[in-house]
Amino acid sequence: MKIRSRCFGVLIMSTVVNAALAGEKLQWTMSTPAPEPRSDYAAAVLDGRLIIAGGTFWTGSKGNWLQKQFSSSTDAFDPKTQMWEKLADLPVPLGLSSATVIDGKMFVAGGFTGTAVNRQVFVLEKRHGKYAWTVFGEFPFDRVYPRALGVGSSLYLVGGTTKFEPRDPTGTCCTSKTATRTLLALDTKHPEHGWRELAPFPGPDRFYFNAETDGHSVWMFGGIYQADPKDTIVAFKDVDRYDVEQGKWKQLQDLPDVSKEGNSPSPVFVGDGFVIVNDSQKVWKLDLSGRNYIDLSPLPEAAQVDRYVWIGKTIVGATGENFIQGPRRRSDWVFLGTFHAD
User: Fold this and answer.
1) Cis amide leading into 173 (omega within 30)
2) Does residue 315 form part of some domain?
3) Which string of DSSP letters, residue by residue, matches 40-77?
4) pLDDT tens track for 131-156
5) Half-sphere exposure of 37 (CA within 13 A, CB side)
6) How far is residue 53's CA from residue 123's CA, in Å, rounded to a whole number?
């Protein structure tokens, strides 16, 4: 999804330092193209591979895009071999959902099937040498564009809208008048205890933010709000952290920049901080020790990648949208980022 923004809000200054101070250099390369380019997918790392499940794509061609379609495809990318493998399809077509891995299982929650909001929680795991999907349970609320994170055995679901809010019958996305600020959690070892509603995230309503975990906390980055297609898009720059042990949110340094298109940057936890990738090719690292933003090498091409992941010592980001043919054109690009001593 690519959204044009005319309003970026007020910039609160953050500290940005040169990457040379950190003694590391990030190098990007392009890898094997994705076999089924799509956006709005659920993604996670399972068994050392990037798994992409579901997502959306458009039928038609540039200047004549006809209808947004929802996919059930599941594909796995191995950064070691740089090869793709097709896995079992999701039980239903599904986009605008989110995924995380807990105890070696990939959980997919929320989203839209093309006709209805999905309330089922799906799990992908390897059984008898093959990957298979099962239904773990049912989510008690409607959520489209939530963000799923795993901390310990708990599945956290942050925000999302209660409806799919396309701007037109073709599926052009999306307004956010039903956006929520909820934080919900389920202990996957004891699902019979049900979902717990925790403290909502701070600040105004929003959606299309990104989220990541450092293994201890839930982190939120950016987001946008637009209740009506005629309204100016409001883009948020704040970064918020939910401390799981304390049960409290805290607002931290604002993002150093936002996309010209209003898209939130994609964060990935790399062990001692977050690498944050903007669709304008800009890349930073949020250093958790000094809480500074460090400039890193930019992407080789401008692209809106839904999610980046950390596999071994490699950042992997695949498909989404590039801007060569404008909005709605799904990209088959795959980016690999590795750190080297400066």
Assistant:
1) no
2) no
3) S-EEEEETTEEEEEEEEEEEEETTEEEEEEEEEEEEEE
4) 999 999 999 999 999 999 999 999 99
5) 19
6) 11
- CA–CA–CA angle 244, 176, 150 (5° rounding): 25
**Predicted TM-score (pTM) of this structure:** 0.90
CB atoms within 10 A of CB 7: 12
Q: Which two tokens stand for residue 164?
A: 């799919």
Closest CA to 50 of 4, 84, 96, 11: 84
Say which residue, 117 or 271, is predicted with more confidence.
117
In the chain, the number of structural domains is 1
Does residue 305 sit within a domain?
no
User: Amino acid identity, residue 133?
Assistant: W
Q: What is the 8-class DSSP label of residue 119?
A: -
Q: Is the residue at 82 inside a domain?
A: yes
Q: Is the pLDDT of residue 262 over 70?
A: no
3-class DSSP state of 229? coil
Residue 45 CB contacts under 8 Å (≥ 6 apart), including other chains: 51, 101, 309, 310, 311
Looking at the domain assignment, is residue 164 inside a domain? Answer: yes
* Residue 137 neighbours by CB under 8 Å, 6+ apart: 120, 121, 191
Yes or no: say if 79 and 311 are a contact pair by the CB < 8 Å rule: yes
Model confidence pLDDT, tens digit, residues 284-338: 999 887 678 889 999 999 889 999 999 999 999 999 988 876 666 789 999 999 9
- Tell me the CATH number at 115: 2.120.10.80
User: Containing domain of residue 96, as a range?
Assistant: 39-270
